[in-house]
Amino acid sequence: MPIRHHFFCALLGPGLFSGAVLAANLDCMVKPEMYVELSSPVAGTVAALLVDKGDHVAKGQPLAQLEASVELAKFNQAKADAESSSEVRNQKVKLEYATRNRTRYRSLATTNVISQIEKDKVETEVVLAGIELKKAEERKKSAMLALEMAKAQLEVKTIKSPIDGIVIDRYAMPGESVSDRAIMKLAQVNPLRVELIAPTEYFGLIQPGMDVEVRPELPAKKVVRATVTKVDQLIDPASGSFTVRMTLPNPSDELIGGVNCIATFDFATPAPTTTPSPPPFVPQNVAPVSPVIKR
């Protein structure tokens, strides 16, 4: 992009100027903040594209659906296993019965009605019932984890937008494989990025945080405000220039990327100081000289 710049000066204050504002007009380019080529983390075949070229999309919005019949079946099976509590309930009933039976045998043991063998048997039944209940509870936890895994495997088959932006292009169609290829391209347009190349005479004058007036080519006669976010600290010796980047809010998506613009920078310069004239010299302690009168 060729560098085009102009200085202009506005005098401030009456009489001798007390200060000036220097302004520079620099060619710039309005670009999307970022481009994203969206792909799938897993291999698969496109079942449906849910957006078209030029559509606005929100972060987290589904954009494409891959074929996922197997993953859906696994999810449904895992969900059924995780929601089933029959085994745990069964083992709880067995433990409660064994506990009651042990209580009865303990009362009989005090009267020496039952043998030691019978006593050991009922005690063991309680322990075994407790172990089986713990196993059932562990299998329940495993089923819940399997459900989470099946859910994750199903979710990756739905391609979602990582940003708020616009669909720039679609690379795949329904029925095509997405292995090692992008599905579509997105552009983030809020905020937009403004870039320019400034000559070295502006190095040090342009600072991060400066408010800049930007006039893009499209829409015509639109004047917006951008903020300087990055000023390169290295000057290119070949071109005698450095790069400046700005951020341009675009909440209503009214502005578009990929257009030229003019950025106007205002630089406040300190007013020149004037040195007051010294007072006239007056000799001290010198006797006055009487005038000479000619007759």
UniProtKB/TrEMBL annotation:
Domain CusB-like beta-barrel: 198-261
Keyword Coiled coil: yes
Signal peptide positions (record): 1-23
Coiled coil: 119-153
Positions of the CzcB-like barrel-sandwich hybrid domain: 37-182
Domain of life: Bacteria
UniProt-listed InterPro entries: Beta-barrel_RND_2 (IPR058792), BSH_CzcB-like (IPR058647), RND_pump_MFP (IPR006143)
UniProt keyword annotations, A-Z: Coiled coil, Signal
NCBIfam families per UniProt: RND_mfp (TIGR01730)
Family indicated by similarity: Belongs to the membrane fusion protein (MFP) (TC 8.A.1) family.
Name of the molecule in the record: Efflux RND transporter periplasmic adaptor subunit
Organism: Methylomonas defluvii
Lineage per the UniProt record: Bacteria, Pseudomonadati, Pseudomonadota, Gammaproteobacteria, Methylococcales
